[in-house]
């Protein structure tokens, strides 16, 4: 789904981002790819006037959950809904390196293995209260307390001294988070067992990059936080806008936070509203919204719309095929592989990857707006991405040979397992717009061509929330699935693919993977050349073992009313992969 850097962590990509469009000729494909790549990342800079209401579209085929807490939500949809109010603690430059220009400052001390975060004076919640040290510390309690059931807890955070003990109920507080000026001060000092090379970048997941209003939430039991009105209906933010009205799952009306630390926003109101994918194209063409993201499905229909500025970027994101090979052990907080799992066969996974005609699909259906991603470290990460790794190029002959050699013999139309037993594979995919079904059917047909009896789980596409409920809870009826990640701006794959990450939905665990992930984030990796080498080794390992098959990514294009200025997707001009909304306004 969508993504993107999500509040110093990562996010689930929505079904809309997986949608594709009607067919086009090959020469159109080249032209559209070239024209989209030239679109700017920002609207033209003009003088903005004070006032006005902006209508913001959220394109999705499912209601948003409305969990206004970075610690309790992993959905890009929720991130988009919260964007007018939610700011993270740090601004970045265009390479995602943390700067001192945001709500808080950062200082690393490699000698003492500490990170000091100081929130600026005047950074206030929308109820007028100063953001305090306790507000910086409290998110760690939410994440680490088992009663909150946060999916953000992972091995990375256990690098903070005392966090694991708090998580396991052996301590009542987190000893490694110090508040030198007390709860009401503005500074926390985090004591780590070791500092990591990615800590200079936003999205590193070793320390948290958002705050929570402790004074507002402290009396709510952790087990009830996610369902509380303070999280769902009346959240507090220290960003430019506050949530004035929440119609659950459908819309949010945002009005200015009069205490906003950067100054008064230009707009008087932002109305965010859900729009179904099948009606979004007409809504954009008729200017029903001032800002609307465009999925590849819509580009050819809306690209000639008048009085619109289109802005675009390649997001930090990808779609992938995941194979279920184990379960999450909640008691031990780790993934446990099942050696007898149907998909715990390297040859089977490889063949599935080589049978996918991703390049053909993307060129045929999206006019070059979508494109194949060969490895799990996309090109936007620079030299960390191994440009020499071909990934899984379409090769039916190779797929068949792999299965033949591995003993998956054909008996009639379908192949059987090496032990002679029948082989049926259930595949889960999310619903989307009207083109999602034929695209999924295309991949089913490709797998059928190599003799694999792959069927849709439940016989149909699955609604977004239900899909992730099944994937996260290791529904035994699912053998493989197609999903997507919005990625953080620090490239370490630890939070997705480690033994202790609940977001490793495949549930695979190997000593070699553990070793490579440790090396990527080790103190030795402060040496850039060494870290690049380890990233390349990990990508080769993941391609060789095919635990997850990367599929593709796409340009994200946004249609912005030509009367709007200040809208930007540039990293240095955005926060949480959304524009800094206080800058957005109507042209004078």
Q: Please, could you describe this protein's structure?
A:
The protein is of the alpha+beta class and 588 residues long. The chain contains 16 helices and 27 strands. The strands form 9 sheets. Strands 1, 12, 18, 19, 20 and 21 form a 6-stranded mixed beta sheet that branches. The protein has a 4-stranded mixed beta sheet with strand order 2-9-8-7. A hairpin with an 8-residue loop joins β5 (177-178) and β6 (187-191). The longest helix has 18 residues, at 528-545. It is globular. The chain starts with 10 loop residues before the first strand and ends with a strand.
> Quick check: average pLDDT?
91
Number of helices: 16
- Weakly predicted, low-confidence segments: 1-10, 15-28
The beta-strand count equals 27
**Approximate helicity band:** 10-25%
The assigned structural class equals alpha+beta
Q: What general form does the structure show?
A: globular
Strand content: 15-25%
Radius of gyration: 24 Å
- N-to-C terminal Cα separation, in Å? 36 Å
How many strands, which pairing sense, and closed or not: the largest β-sheet?
6 strands, mixed
């Amino acid at each position: 789904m969508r993504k993107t850097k999500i509040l110093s962590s990562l996010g689930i990509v929505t079904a809309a981002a997986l949608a594709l469009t009607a067919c086009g000729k090959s020469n159109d494909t080249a032209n559209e790819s070239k024209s989209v790549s030239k679109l700017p990342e920002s609207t033209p800079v003009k003088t903005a006037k004070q006032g006005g209401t902006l209508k913001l579209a959220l394109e999705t085929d499912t209601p948003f959950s409305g969990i206004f807490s970075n610690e309790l939500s992993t959905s890009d949809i929720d991130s988009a809904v919260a964007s007018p109010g939610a700011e993270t603690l740090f601004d970045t430059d265009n390479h995602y390196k943390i700067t001192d220009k945001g709500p808080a400052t950062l200082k690393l001390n490699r000698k003492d293995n500490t990170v000091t975060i100081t929130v600026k004076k005047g950074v206030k919640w929308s109820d007028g209260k100063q953001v305090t040290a306790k507000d910086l510390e409290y998110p760690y309690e939410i994440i680490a307390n088992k009663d909150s059931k946060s999916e953000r807890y992972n091995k990375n955070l256990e690098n903070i001294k005392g966090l694991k003990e708090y998580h396991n109920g052996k301590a009542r507080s987190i000893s490694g988070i110090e508040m030198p000026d007390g709860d009401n001060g503005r500074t926390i000092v985090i004591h780590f067992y070791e500092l990591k090379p990615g800590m200079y970048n936003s999205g590193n997941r070793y320390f948290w990059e958002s705050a929570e209003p402790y004074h507002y939430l402290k009396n709510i039991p952790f087990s009830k936080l996610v369902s509380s009105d303070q999280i769902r209906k009346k959240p507090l933010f220290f960003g430019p806008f506050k949530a004035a009205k929440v119609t659950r799952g459908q819309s949010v009306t945002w009005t200015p936070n009069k205490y906003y630390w950067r100054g008064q926003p230009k707009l008087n109101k932002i109305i965010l509203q859900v729009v179904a994918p099948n009606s979004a194209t007409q809504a954009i063409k008729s200017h029903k919204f001032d800002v609307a993201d465009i999925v590849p499905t819509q580009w050819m229909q809306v690209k000639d719309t008048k009085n619109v500025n289109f802005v675009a970027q390649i997001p930090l994101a990808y779609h992938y095929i995941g194979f279920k090979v184990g379960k999450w052990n909640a008691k031990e907080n780790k993934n446990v592989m099942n050696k007898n799992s149907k998909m715990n066969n390297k040859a089977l996974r490889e063949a599935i990857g080589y049978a996918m005609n991703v390049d053909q699909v993307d060129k045929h259906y999206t006019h070059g707006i979508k494109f194949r991603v060969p490895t799990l470290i996309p090109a936007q990460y620079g030299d960390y991405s191994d440009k020499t790794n071909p990934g899984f190029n379409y090769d039916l002959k190779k797929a068949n040979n792999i299965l033949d050699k591995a003993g998956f013999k054909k008996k009639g139309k379908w192949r059987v397992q090496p032990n002679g037993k029948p082989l049926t594979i259930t595949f889960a995919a999310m619903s989307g717009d009207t083109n999602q079904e034929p695209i999924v059917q295309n991949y089913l047909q490709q797998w059928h061509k190599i003799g694999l009896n792959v069927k849709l789980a439940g016989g149909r596409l699955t609604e977004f929330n239900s899909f992730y409920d099944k994937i996260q809870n290791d529904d035994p009826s699912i053998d493989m699935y197609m999903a997507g990640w919005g990625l953080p701006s620090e490239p370490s794959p630890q939070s997705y693919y480690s033994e202790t990450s609940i977001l490793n939905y495949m549930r695979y665990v190997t000593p070699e993977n553990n070793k490579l992930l440790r090396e990527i984030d080790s103190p030795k990796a402060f040496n850039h050349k060494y870290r690049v080498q380890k990233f390349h080794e990990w990508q080769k390992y993941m391609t060789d073992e095919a635990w997850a098959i990367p599929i593709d990514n796409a340009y994200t294009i946004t249609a912005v009313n030509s009367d709007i200025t200040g809208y930007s997707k540039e990293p240095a001009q955005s926060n949480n992969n959304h524009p800094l909304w206080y800058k957005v306004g109507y042209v004078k």
